[in-house]
Amino acid sequence: MGASTSRHRQCRPRQSPINIYTKKVRYDSSLKPLYIYYDPKSSQRLVNVGHCFNVEFEDTNDKSVVSDGPLVGYYRLRQCHFHWGASDKDGSEHVIDGLEYPAELHIVHWNAQKYPTFDEALEHPDGVAVIGVLLKIGETNPLIQSIIDSLDQVKEKNKECPFTQFDLSSLLPNDRNYWTYQGSLTTTPYLECVTWIIFQEAIPIDSDQLQHFRSLHCTSEAEDPAFILENHRAIQPIEARVVRSSFK
Ligand SMILES: C[C@H](CNC(=O)c1ccc(S(N)(=O)=O)cc1)Cn1ccc2ccccc21
Ligand SMILES: [Zn+2]
């Protein structure tokens, strides 16, 4: 292996997010429909984690899970969060045929069938499953409004508030066609432990709702305020990967 190729050989071959180039996607008839069940009683709190806010769920039982699809076994729901841009022209992490969406919802699950904890699951290539839902500018989204109505209680970094009875399944698109590929966390430490499942259908959010996300502080109460204007990672090289689709 020459010096130059070793320098360029990716030691991080499965990074996320990526551009999904639909002409190169391979339809896989062996991919099953997803089984998704989210119990509203699992939702616990809203937390400002500095670079975004998480809706956190109870993950000490199997009340809220995803299974089937490309997955082996079941994955427990842990948290969901959004990525957005400084304006409505970009903000999603995954890009479809070069088209950036204004935001993206990530629903994070971990392989509780194989691993004892989330932190352990992070260390394995089949440890985590993230469902990605693209957002497009459209009518006001009442589910997202229920989160926005609580955001002023978590304005600063590390603040949290109770957030219960959240019906996350109502945020999912009606059409369950999806793309799937092996990737990573999109924030540091970019661990390569994620099976990504991206729905083809986008869900609506209105521009004012998106503006509320940008008013969150990435700073704590003790610091001079700065805003989370954007928090989406640049697309990464696809390397030797192929994106599969559940649909033709
Ligand atoms: C990563 C972990 C915190 N990050 C995440 O949980 C996470 C989840 C989903 C995404 S995304 N945007 O891809 O859906 C990104 C980050 C902290 N943590 C816990 C154990 C642990 C061990 C070493 C380093 C960090 C560690
Ligand atoms: Zn994310």
Outline the structure in words.
The structure is a single chain. The protein has helices spanning about 5-10, 120, 140-150, 205-215, and strands spanning about 20, 25, 35, 45-50, 55, 65-70, 75-85, 95, 100, 105-110, 130-135, 160, 180-185, 195-200, 205, 245. By secondary structure, the protein is mostly beta strands. Strands 2, 3, 4, 5, 6, 7, 10, 11, 12, 13, 14, 15 and 16 form a 13-stranded mixed beta sheet that branches. Strands 1-8-9 form a three-stranded mixed beta sheet, with no helix packed on it. A hairpin with a 4-residue loop joins strand 4 (about 45-50) and strand 5 (about 55). The chain is globular, with a radius of gyration of 18 Å. The mean pLDDT is about 95. (R)-N-(3-indol-1-yl-2-methyl-propyl)-4-sulfamoyl-benzamide binds near residues 106, 108 and 189.
Features of this protein?
single chain, 248 residues, 13-stranded mixed β-sheet, 3-stranded mixed β-sheet, 16 strands, 11% helix, 31% strand, binds (R)-N-(3-indol-1-yl-2-methyl-propyl)-4-sulfamoyl-benzamide
Could you outline the blueprint of secondary structure elements for this entry?
Blueprint: H1 3-8, E1 19-20, E2 26-27, E3 34-37, E4 43-48, E5 53-57, E6 65-68, E7 74-84, E8 95-96, E9 99-100, E10 103-110, H2 118-121, E11 128-137, H3 142-151, E12 160-162, E13 178-183, E14 194-199, E15 203-205, H4 207-213, E16 244-245
Parallel strand pairs: 1-8, 2-16, 11-14, 11-15
Antiparallel strand pairs: 3-6, 4-5, 4-12, 5-7, 6-7, 7-10, 8-9, 10-11, 13-14, 13-16
This protein binds (R)-N-(3-indol-1-yl-2-methyl-propyl)-4-sulfamoyl-benzamide and zinc ion.
